[in-house]
Amino acid sequence: MEIPVLVHGKGIYDSLSRKMKYTGMVLEKSRIKEMGRFEELAQAHPGARIMDCSDSYILPGLINTHVHLEFTPSGDTYGAYIREDRGTRLAGAMEHARMLLRSGVTTVRDAGSSMDLVRALGSDNPMDLETGPDRKKAVAETGADLPRIQAAGMPLTPDGGHLAFLGKTSNGAQGLIQAVKERKSAGCGCIKLIVSGGQLTPGSIPERDTYSREEIRAAVETAHELGLPTAAHCLTTSSCVNALEAGVDSLEHCACFRRNHRTGLLERCYEPDVMERFCGNNRFFMAGISNNYHMLDPARDGVKKPDEREAFFLEQEKRECEIFARLSDLGMRPVIGTDAGCGFTFFHETWLEMELLCRRCGLTPEEVIQAATLEGARALGLGDFLGMLAPGYEADFIAVERSPLEDIEAFRHVRHVVCRGKIMKQGE
Description:
The chain is 32% helix and 21% strand. With 428 residues, it is an alpha/beta fold. Helix 8 links the parallel strand 9 and strand 10.
């Protein structure tokens, strides 16, 4: 009989009350069995093995709903991907996953990589890396355990569309339906649709939509019939509308781009008359405020005077945060996604997105924690066993030195990481 583990924390976060409610938590294998005061639980479980985190605050493991594990952060993400061979890309993807885990992210959605990554994870269900006929081989190849990974595999994109370089494209309603079925058979845990152009892919026009509402709906309905959540890459207002009306579960980016004809640059323009009709819509959305944020650090921090182009992009940052607030006011539900791998967006900086949502987008620390944990789990379709610390839920948690309810910067330094009840990082 396996000995239970009794976790002792300075405070343990309760997602329902949004407070540090407990000091003790009993684990049985990979699940949480009981919550309460440490002293009382110690008396009730005298033979339990103690996991001493009494100098730290314990919270659910973070959930990053949007990364690209096969991409290498750089000034030429596309070029780097094309130049790398398959083995190098997959080895990099596994190391990126480890970086996420060490930074406190215990569950991650890969929102677009090749189908090679899905196969490399070695399981019929990429979310359950404890099982599957090729699990031992996958662990041997990667050399370390990984966070929980929900892989979209190759996104659904048309000929010449954004991320088409990742593999096979999909055209028309029937093509999309077939593509969804193929992703399910291959072991993908979700469906990612590219419903507007993108900036990373040569030849793709960001402000141009790709699929019609009816085509998106055909893919979404098929995905839902197969039990797969859906997410849509939306850079225009019209693509957001198409995705919302087609029933997509989560909207990615929500940039509201249009082309500024004077400068030739993309600018963000929120259209209240269009979006207000979705008031009360509780769909999930990911903004990715931290995407490429470091590009403007010198100008933003006053190290140098911004030139005209940098001043334009600083203004776009403000608009991006305003759009986030407008979508939140409509009733849409934010989740944490960073787009790590694209440009200079790093895998270990989920904390940066959380800080920006708190400091620049008006969320409270409690709301940011909710977005980074329980809401993220719900967006991935996993909210019945992930995203909070409660009896019956998976033992995925992190420990930080300071309470993030008082200082959101606490997430910059994660001391302990536990995933599936196993210690993945301890005492740093």
